[in-house]
Structures are given as C-alpha cells and as structure tokens.
Specification:
The protein is mainly α and 193 residues long. It is built from eight helices and four strands.
Length: 193
Amino acid sequence: MIERASTEAKGVQRAAQALNRFSRSSPCSTQNSVSIDSPTSTWLLTMPGLRARTAGSSATALVAGDTAGLSLNALVTVRGMDFAIASGYYAAEAVKKAKAAGDFSAAGLASYEASLRDSFVLRDLETAKSIPSVMENPRLFTHYPQAIGKLLESVYTIDDQPQSGLVKKAWKGARRDFLNVATIKDAWSMRKI
C-alpha cells in the first residue's frame, strides 16, 4: 500500500513537473483579453469561459475539463463534471477529425473550440460570468444568512408571550433586514446574473 501511494505521488509529481515545463515554454497568457477570430494553436480555457488564447505556437494542445478551468460556482450549485465530460468528448472528436485529415495544426483542431462554443459549455460559462463579482459581496455571506436565521428564530421560538401571526412575523423581519438601501443595491448588482 505504501509502495503504491509512493508510486502515485511520484506520478503526480512528474505530471506537475511536465505541466510546469509546458506552462513555461508555452506562449499561453492568462490575461483577460480574447482574440476570437485569430487561428489558435493552443487554447487555455479559464473560468468564466474562454479568456486567454495564444496564436502562432508550433506546439498544439487541447485542454479540457478542470485543467481548462471549466468549472462554475453558481452560488447554489457547483458545476464541472458536465463541462469535463463534454469538453473531453469534443476534444476527442476534434482529434479524430484531425487524424482523419492528417492535420494536427491549429486549423485542423479548430473544431474543438467551435464545438465548445456551440455546446452548453461555453454558453453556460458566458451566462454566469458575472457570478464571481456577485460572490465578492460580503453581505451575501454575513447579513443575509444572519437575517434569515433571525427570521426563522422568530417564527420557531415559543415563549410565555402570546404569538403574533406568521405573516406578521415574516413582514416584520423583512422590513427590518431586507427593505433597505443596501439590499436594493445588492439586488441591483445581482441583475447581471
């Protein structure tokens, strides 16, 4: 068991070293600019969607799944497996087409990007591109959970005093914690998602 773990660790270490060598020798850039119309020979896909691409490299790489940054934290759910499966499938299809044509150049593998653009993968990432900026709002993780907790506490607390109706309690909590300028600003910023 220890020998297997050691072998796996060495494999992971070799893979990391190879990736580091590739990233140092690759002309990939992680800048947010995108040149959609230029032919590419290496794609580096990062959340959310296609952000960085390079042109003119002699080496060709198709990056898919988590390696390509195809994951999405959509506030209530985290997606990635579906993107990994789809991008892996489209990468394999592009390689099959390139092999049949005998052309592994950027032009020969361009169907990968086209397939990703036509599928749900890049469309969903493009749709959700504003979610990270919304998640930077600290009120999302402090004020709103606390306000909902206070509201639920008032609904479920039973004491020796006469209880007001459920709607009255809910309205009181909503007025106190949600009907204010800060919440309106938060709602306005969420319109992008």
